[in-house]
Write a structure and sequence with these properties.
The chain is an alpha/beta fold. It is 31% helix and 14% strand. It contains 7 helices and 11 strands. The strands form 3 sheets. A 7-stranded parallel beta sheet has the order 7-5-4-3-2-1-9, covered by helices on one side. A two-stranded parallel ribbon has the order 6-8. A two-stranded antiparallel ribbon has the order 10-11. α2 (70-82) links the parallel β2 and β3 (87-92).
Length: 259
C-alpha cells in the first residue's frame, strides 16, 4: 500500500462547480455556472474500487451545488451503500429548483439512494442570493423522509463573533430550528476566493492562515475527485483510480526536489 495513503478513510466528490448562489464568502471565487459535471458511472466505479482496497468510512458529495445533478449524487451514494461505507454525506445549499414536485422527488431519491447525513448550507451569505422559501421546502421534504438533516452555517471570524453577518445567520438558523432541524457546528470562513475579495476588512492584514481543510500531502486521509475526474495528480477518466492512488507521490518528493 502507498505509505502516503496508509490512513486514507474518506472519499470526496466535487460534483460540479456550477452553483445557484453567488456568495461573497465562497472560497471558489466567481466560478459562476460552470457546465462541467462529474460522470455518474465513473464516480460510482471509483467508490467501488477504492472501497475494495481501503477501509473507507465516509463519502461526501458537494460542489458548487451538487443537486443541479441529483442523478450523480444518488449514483455515488448508492455505490457507497453497496460497499457498506457507513457515513454517506453531502452538502447542499438546498436551492436547485422552484418546482415543488421536483424538490420533493429529489428529496425522496436522496433517501432511497442511501444518503444518511445531509448538511444544509444556510446563513447570511447564502441567503443574499438564494430565496429561503425553496430551501425550507426542500428541508421539510428531506425531514419527511427521515434522513438526518442539519444546518451548516458559515461563520465570519468565529462562531461567537459579533458582526452583521453572524447576527443575520443566527436569525436564519432560528427559522430552521423552529422546523425541528438541528444545527451543526458549521465552519469558519477561510480568507480565500471571494472571501478575501469582499470580506478582507474582517481578516487580520498580513497574517498567514493555513487552510484547516487541507490534508497533509504526506498523510492523505481523504481523496478528492473533481468534476473533471481529477484526483491526486491523475484522472479517473484516463486511469483506474487505484493505479492513481498507488502511484501518488507528494510534489516535494518528486525527484528529491522541493517545489
Amino acid at each position: 500500500m502507498n505509505p502516503y495513503l496508509k490512513n486514507l478513510n474518506r472519499i470526496e466528490f466535487v460534483v460540479t462547480l456550477a452553483c445557484t448562489g453567488r456568495c461573497r464568502h465562497c472560497s471558489q471565487g466567481e466560478h459562476g455556472n460552470v457546465g462541467r459535471r462529474l460522470d455518474a458511472d465513473a464516480a460510482a466505479l471509483a467508490v467501488r474500487r477504492i472501497a475494495e482496497n481501503y477501509r473507507i468510512e465516509s463519502v461526501m458529495t458537494f460542489g458548487g451545488e451538487p443537486l443541479l445533478y441529483p442523478e450523480v449524487v444518488c449514483s455515488i451514494h448508492a455505490a457507497a451503500g453497496k460497499m457498506q461505507i457507513p457515513k454517506r454525506q453531502f452538502i447542499t445549499n438546498g436551492y436547485f429548483s422552484r418546482e415543488t414536485g421536483k424538490i420533493e422527488a429529489v428529496a425522496a431519491a436522496l433517501s432511497e439512494s442511501g444518503v444518511n447525513n445531509i448538511l444544509l448550507s444556510v446563513d447570511a451569505f447564502h441567503q443574499e442570493s438564494i430565496p429561503l422559501e425553496y430551501v425550507k421546502h426542500f428541508a421539510g421534504a428531506v425531514k419527511d423522509t427521515g434522513c438526518r438533516l442539519r444546518t451548516q452555517p458559515a461563520w465570519l471570524v468565529s462562531r461567537e463573533g459579533d458582526n452583521p453577518y453572524n447576527r443575520r445567520t443566527r436569525e436564519i438558523l432560528e427559522e430552521f430550528a423552529a422546523m425541528g432541524i438541528e444545527e451543526n457546528d458549521g465552519n469558519v470562513i477561510f480568507p480565500e476566493g471571494n472571501a478575501l475579495k469582499y470580506l478582507k476588512e474582517y481578516f487580520e492584514p498580513g497574517r498567514e492562515i493555513r487552510n484547516p481543510y487541507e490534508d497533509d500531502p504526506e498523510d492523505v486521509r481523504a481523496v478528492s475527485i473533481g468534476p473533471d475526474g481529477s484526483a491526486l495528480g491523475g484522472n479517473l477518466y484516463e486511469r483506474d483510480i487505484c493505479d492513481i492512488l498507488a502511484s501518488y507521490t507528494p510534489m516535494n518528493k518528486i525527484d528529491g526536489c522541493l517545489y
